[in-house]
Write a structure and sequence with these properties.
The chain is mostly helical. The protein contains 3 helices and no strands.
Amino acid sequence: MEGKELDLALLREDLISELEAINQYQDHIADMENDEAAKVLEHIISDEREHVAELMKIIQELDPKQAEKFGKKT
C-alpha cells in the first residue's frame, strides 16, 4: 500500500483513535467525583470532536466514494 491508499489507511486509524479517546473520556467522566477534572475532560472531548470532523473532511476529500456515503440519507 502506498500513496493515497496509505494516506487514507493512516487517516482512518487516526479517526478510530480519536473516537476511542472520546469514548474513554466519557467513561471516565461518568466515574469521576471531581467536578474540575470532569470539566477538563469535557473540554478535551470537545477538542477531540473537532479532530474527528477534520479527519472526516480530509478522508472525504481523498475518497469520493466515502464522501458519497456520507452524503446519502437513509
